[in-house]
Write a structure and sequence with these properties.
Length: 240
Amino acid sequence: MLDNSEQLKKIRKERGLTIQAVSEGAEIPIRTYQNYEYGKREISAEALNKLADFYGVTTDRLLGREPKQDPLALLGIRNDEKSALDAYLKLDEKNRQIVIDAMIALGDAARKSRELSSQELRQMITKKFSFLPTSAGSGEWLDDENIEYKDFPDSPQVREADLIIPVEGSSMEPEISDGDRLCVKLCDAVKVGETGVFIVDGTGYVKKLGEDRLISINEEYDDIYAAEYKCVGKVIGKVE
């Protein structure tokens, strides 16, 4: 198997992009693209062409191959850039200077944009994410098949979390609202009074543990009385 994972990761970071941004921009499922970068799956010709179009480079660049026969290709110049260079060489000296001044201004703007993107990238952290929510109201089953990796803004809570879980429902308002993404530390039990993610009869819930029940903060919702339940983990915060 051809392993071009490091090259894919290198060009993504050069552009200051997240995994999710590349996945969406190249129209490749995020889990599939993650497998490419992690070297767990050989990249298909279709995906390779999509990524080449997205980045505006040749497929050889994505595969880490260095062209030898074309000096301009060694500089990473695309075909459309070669055409632009030919047009530039046909200009007189005055118009060439106008083009150069414009390129310098555009280059400065692009550099500032890359610096900002790189800063944003440094502030992101990749975590496991359950794309099927556990509901604070009715709940969803937490299945390993529904886990993927996503980038989130770095924070102490995100850094400590083992899993990020989105919430649907309002039974835990005002502490937890519909749409929140919870930082969960996986564990077999939480203390009474702590908020955790629990499985009851195959359904996932976000609740506060009581002495004899799982408590809903919102008084419009009933508490859950269950002789048996499984603790998935402790809620340690939210993704900001």
